Amino acid sequence: MSAHPQLSVVVPVHNEEDNVAPLVAEILAALRGRIDFEIVYVDDTSRDATLQRLRQLQASTPELRVIRHLANAGQSTAVRNGVKAARAPWIATLDGDGQNDPADIPHLLDKRASAVADVKLFAGWRVNRQDSGSKRWASKWANAIRSRMLHDATPDTGCGIKLFEREAFLDLPYFDHMHRYLPALMQRAGWQTVSVPVNHRHRTAGVSKYNNLGRALAGIRDLRGVAWLIVRSRRTAVEEVTP
Q: What's the rounded Cα separation, in Å, for the pair 57 and 64?
């Protein structure tokens, strides 16, 4: 593995022991021979064998790096810590439950290759979601409310598979659940974003870490905060003055 990879794949996990090995294998199949990459797993204090499985995989997977939270901090913090630890200028993120398809990462890279330089985020769009009816219904309404308040022109901000520039991401304001508002935050910073249709799969192992009510209550508070950030934003181009 190179000390200067072109792409870092960041995967936050919490109690996903049975999903670790299959997902790592799929990432390797999708990217080996295509791009110089690393995989950065962030274990958010799993109570099962997730960390043990990751350590075992490191022996046979030179691309794999593992970071462990010392206290439970949630998905947004795990993503941010993974991005901070990453060594590549571009980041791909995947949910650790296996519902995102690593085979879509090359598709996102192709979209980046043909895009203008101001596009800093390529967001996955689950056009055929494989979740329960209640979860799809809740997501539909949440996306509609978010779009009306933030005007981010993004049909699906909850999809875990994304491709973005590391520097642009780390320049964004950080708060819990920020990973659900990346298109609006990137646009607030002056960058363009693109939604890309991607595959979505059934969860085959483990259980979801979220419920619809919890998401709704947190989402209302977060939406108000992001809307305030957008209203209070001010940008200007700068230039260096030389003698």
A: 8
